[in-house]
Amino acid sequence: MSPPDPAATAAWLARNAEDCLPAGGLEAKLRTDRPLRVKLGIDPTAPDIHLGHTVVLGKLREFQDLGHTVVLIIGDYTARVGDPSGRSATRPVLSGEEIDANARSFQDQALRVLDAERLEVRFNAEWLDMAMSELFRLLATTTVARVTERDDFAKRLADGSAISMLELLYPLLQGYDSVAIRADVELGGTDQKFNLLLGRDIQRAYGVSEQVILTMPILPGTDGVRRMSKSLGNYVGVADPPGEIYGKTLSIPDTALADWYRLLLDRPVPAELAPRDEKRALARALVERYWDEVAAAAAEAEFDRVFGGHGTPSEVPEVLFAPANGLVHLPALLGQAFDVSTSEARRALAQGGVRFDGEQVDRGVLDVGVDAVDGRVLQLGKRRFARVRIV
RNA sequence: GGCGGGAUUCCCGAGCGGUCAAAGGGGACGGACUGUAAAUCCGUUGGCUCAGCCUUCGCAGGUUCGAAUCCUGCUCCCGCCA
Q1: Which of A54, A102, A344, A375 is most buried, with most CB under 10 Å away?
Q2: What is the pTM of this model?
Q3: DSSP secondary structure code for residue A258 in this structure
Q4: Which tens digit of pLDDT belongs to each residue from A118-146?
Q5: Which residues of the protein are close to the nucleic strand B, CB under 7 angstroms?
Q6: How many domains does chain A have?
Q7: Which residues contact A323 (CB under 8 A, 6 or more apart)?
Q8: What percent of chain A has pLDDT over 70?
Q9: Which of the nucleotides in strand B have any atom less than 7 Å away from a protein CB atom?
Q10: Do A35 and A135 lie in a common domain?
């Protein structure tokens, strides 16, 4: 990338970003002709990295490849305090060990996208565990009106729902991170726009050079509607096995295809492909990225066999079953094989959702002879398989 | 400090003494269909020794033949006025 032209480089970096503010800011930073410090804050409560994260991580990687330094901030201090934003159950306070383990796991996975060179990992307990006098100084940098401008705060305020003090504080703490590490650029999803901008104000108040903010669009999850997130269960993890990445990708609605192509592969949907192949190509590309070509081809072949050809997977777990007086009680067998309740198993049977070697069990049948099941592949629905071994 | 609102099955949310395992939506699951784990349509969605039985409606008691629904006391949450 030499000799780099700052204007062109800035435009290239911002090409698929939602916002890059202030205008001309990134170009000016690049003109300083030194490695920039590019910040991303992460929350160590949910350690698994999914494709949604990779949109931002991929952008960080571009900065790295241009010679800049990525500073990953692990929000260990804030996690230790616990976020009371509603339903305390969803956000348990984590112990130090858990946070450390999560942070490590996050780093491992992040390295599937990031370059270990030019990477600095910092924990914000390093500077946030401050004296109260210093906290006061931080709090004095901003007003309530300023913070409650934030979209979601404004909305909640308007309809009379709860906002905790700590939530109000979060943007300030995040902004202080930027002061502490002297961030030149901070990345985030579009939902972070307010916090990132506030970071600039706080940096200014501390007499530090203000960061440029760059926000990336939010990747829709496998449901095609809501943002990809672990808690919504609509995510594809970068550490998922090839078959999972492939299958989950094929399950996205067609309407999400364009976003996935643009945000994950940085290219438009190939116009020459048939609708079905557009998605298969995407799924293959993603498996290749996190595994390799061999795994991608294998995942596709496996998928075609199991779902297209209604075959059984090449590898299925085995379940050992001890029949009572020569008969196999199917609800019991299903419960043992797939950890479903008896009632659930009965329902599946009543709905024709149980098969042996692909052959549907007649509805209403609850018991079968040993010979009818031993060594055969039991299937529940489309996705759960187990080879039965009578003992 | 005062006043008011609320806690329901995975989630949201109806219910206001029996017809309630509890409407509706979401999600999930199953079936059909198909180019896919897409879309669409249909069905299911507390547990069990399953035409019956058992356990659920914040917690603990009480009233009643009978309570998610009424009363009392707790616990927690939320808003408003100071």
Answers
A1: A54
A2: 0.83
A3: H
A4: 999 999 999 999 999 999 999 999 998 89
A5: A 160-164, 223-224, 233-234, 243-244, 246-248, 250-254, 275-276, 279, 303, 307-308, 331-332, 335, 341-344, 346-348, 351-353, 355, 360, 380-384
A6: 3
A7: A329, A370, A390
A8: 95
A9: 27-32, 35-39, 43-50, 77-80
A10: yes
